[in-house]
Amino acid sequence: MSPTFDESSTQFLIFKDCLARRLLSYPAFASQSDPTDTDELDDFTTFLASETWSALPEALRQLSPDSADAGYTADVDDLISTSVDLIPPNVLETLTTYVAPSPPSVPSSSPTKLSKTSKKPAKKSTKPPPAFSAPGLLEDVLTEYASEARAPDMSTADSDLPPNGVPKGGWKSTRADECEICEREVHLTYHHLIPRAVHDKVLKRGWHPEDKLNSVAWLCRHCHSFVHRVATHEELAREFYTVEMLLEREDVQKWRAYASRQRWGVRPKKNPTSSFARQVLSQGA
After folding, report:
1. pLDDT < 70 positions in the chain
2. Which of 63, 71, 237, 251 is 20 to 30 A from 200, comparing alpha carbons?
3. What is the reported pLDDT for 157?
4. End-to-end Cα spacing for the chain
5. Considering only CA atoms, which of 83, 94, 57, 11 is closest in space to residue 264?
6. Is residue 127 part of a domain?
7. Where are the transmembrane segments (predicted)?
């Protein structure tokens, strides 16, 4: 019998969001006709996350900013590597069946829209996608989970915010109560809409005036991570430098619809109910 666990725990919900974020890089999940219909993604993710989580060692499931003080001092990289070997075969088989046929996308601009600052569409990569590995996918998810679960609280002080172009009343006067993408009431981080790593290039190329460089959006950690997965720093600076522009992307709409349903402290559905999830479960029986 699989060990029981609290499906409303912060750690499990972080892991589930990391898994959903990874799955949305695959066309099978990101390119459905209705970006707001996330029942299948939610059910599929809940099923895979629950099956995987129940097999993981307690030390990995209890990671937090205070993990060292709580006695979880094992090397996290080694812990993740050994945990991958514990993942149930039905999880690996399900991923191979439903995810492997659609190679993942890489951070790139929307192929149907040209940059407002560029006369040419982004070049498409001619490199073949890497061979699919279900253990590799889950190892990546666990690595992201471990990083996010151990990250300190991002309650931001005025002194931590960008110094230039501060609006009247300070940066906290711009802070929303909810994430500007998923609208969840969770801890927020500030996202540089024009990433700092390309500020010099932005000014040199004349993409934006200097007073726009420190424009920020208030995002939860998971939406923040998702944004940086779907586009490079340069693409964010040139084509997706407002929340409205980000929300024009189909994959961001899909993530927003999924994430908006994931309420911290609310127990996710235990049993998948969509036809897709029932098909997965029946084949694994």
Report:
1. 1-5, 30-37, 67-74, 102-130, 153-176, 263-285
2. 251
3. 40
4. 15
5. 11
6. no
7. none
